[in-house]
């Protein structure tokens, strides 16, 4: 029993010593942190210092672990990942989305923020022929037109069958009679005057009366439907959600997780070096929508494009942000613990509300 207690105490002491040594080694080394501008998660102030939700979180974690660090700025998320893989960076953070491809080459900490893709569109859509053309070539519109044509043809054939032997206007052979009856059916459907040209038999006139009254209702409903589609399209814009992206000109940031998602859904898109470049192109009317991480889009549009652009309420393709580390990094476990402790505190809730207005 005594030997067992001695062994347990020795193991505990060894573990404590190992933890102390690990903490000492982490605090002794200056950690290079790859960072890029991704407001409101990371942005540079006029004095050259960095601020943002991710910056505040990292500094809080580093304080818990007594880490010494320096920021190394790079232009893109891919540069951050490459820097971690090559060993240039001991960590990389700002708004890095966890993806399967990235997980193959780097380790990630526990996620610290969940988000999704958002869509930026013009705020005030200018009148355009494109929404009208889309409405007029839609499957529903073509179905309605085809339905009216079929009914008109059927009515025309029935009128010819009733009138061909009693009305010279629909006589004179099958071809001439059918042409005349269908012509009359079309004119009657549009409520144009037919003069003396029309059915004379009782069955023919009953059918004509039903057709003319029915066509009034059918055309009224048809016209109201088309008008509604065009009005909604003009008021709400051509893009109202993810399902509309396949029909319009879409933009995305090159080599981003957003571009990968659009590729996976076979959505054609134009690539841009930065979000700002894409938003400028959207404002100029050269694309119809820009897809990117929703909180980043919301921040940039609110800061610089509020009078021209908007971010739709809908979001899709849920994503998670985390800190990227080299494979097998000794930082992963202590960072995970410190990260979870920080996120469970009231400080984190206040920080999220400060930068994003979310509770």
From TrEMBL:
Query: Gene3D superfamilies of this UniProt entry?
Result: 1.10.287.70, Periplasmic binding protein-like II
In the bilayer, the protein is annotated as: Multi-pass membrane protein
Domain of life where this protein originates: Bacteria
Gene Ontology cellular component list = membrane
Q: Which InterPro entries match?
A: Ionotropic_Glu_rcpt, Iontro_rcpt_C, Solute-binding_3/MltF_N
Where would you find this protein in the cell? Membrane
MF term (GO), any: ligand-gated monoatomic ion channel activity
Enumerate the UniProt keywords alphabetically. Glycoprotein, Ion channel, Ion transport, Membrane, Receptor, Transmembrane, Transmembrane helix, Transport
Q: Where are the bilayer-spanning segments? A: none
Enumerate the PANTHER family for this protein: IONOTROPIC GLUTAMATE RECEPTOR
Q: Specify the protein name.
A: Amino acid ABC transporter substrate-binding protein
Organism expressing this protein natively: Rhizobium loti (Mesorhizobium loti)
Its taxonomic placement starts with:
Bacteria, Pseudomonadati, Pseudomonadota, Alphaproteobacteria, Hyphomicrobiales
